[in-house]
Amino acid sequence: MNVHHSFGRLALAAAVTAWIVSIALAGAGADRAGRQQLQPPAQPPAAQQPQGPPGNQTPAGQPPQGQPGNQTPAGNQTPATPAPPAPKPAIPVAASSIAARPETFYGQNVSVYATIEQQLTPTAFTIDQDPKNSSDKQVVVLARRLHEKPEPNAYITVIGEVVRADAAEIAKAAKGSAAGLPPDVLAQHAGKPVIIATAVITTALNDIAKFIPPPMTPEEEVLDKAMKSVGPANGALRKGIEASNAELVKTNTDVLAKAFAEVETFWKGRDNAQAVKIAQTARGAVDAIAKAAAMGNWNEAKTQNTTLGQQCASCHKTFRERLEDGSFAVRRPGTR
Length: 336
What we know:
The chain has eight helices and eight strands; from the N terminus they run αβαββββααβααααββ. The chain is an alpha+beta fold. The protein has a five-stranded mixed β-barrel. A two-stranded antiparallel ribbon has the order 7-8.
């Protein structure tokens, strides 16, 4: 009886153990299946690059020859066009430093805040760092013009290029923008640095060396207004001709005809036969463009527009000058 009970207990224990093992195995299988579902699909193998001949293989991680990132052999390089030099910045410096070591600053653009020591000519003066103690450590300043008289001991800011006190050096640096220094002034300040000033600014922030365009006469104001209408009208006229737009052409030939009539009147007042002839030819071309467009003869309109452009270019080249500030004015007699 005891044997039967022991055998029964063993059978029950074995059955329980088998049941636990089966559950564990089933869970492990489900876990493996879940992990397989979460993993990304396998990627196909990368296509192999064709092998080049021995000796022409590119090292791994580097682009093939002829593509960006590779250096061309030195003998095959095309030399790059050098960029134009950037304008020299103005170096803030004390007048005493320039006077003590002028060779350090020759050819440099500087900005100096100092006091006016002495006026030498209507456009030249000396500056010193110390307004109370005059010394021989002075720097000469030369400007093209001065709208106000420099006041001794007044503070001033000077911007310009440092050169030697030599007539040839001054003329080269000034490029005709300054009258230079008289021989006696050069002799008196021999060996001292000179600043060719492009700006002389007072404590009131007035640039007394600044270029001021001369005032226009009433006749020049009429001419200026006419010229300012010519540019936009000429551009619109070209577009109208290219587009065979008769209405746009008529609108702008009307503007140009009026403008060139005023130009002709101006030059007659100046008794300039050459300029009068140019204005008359330009106006004739405008009239011919208007007639050709009205008839639909666009080839003739283009031909006459070329004539018009030639007259404008000829007049500007001969009778117009660019001023220091970039604006334009009627060329003064004797200037080129």
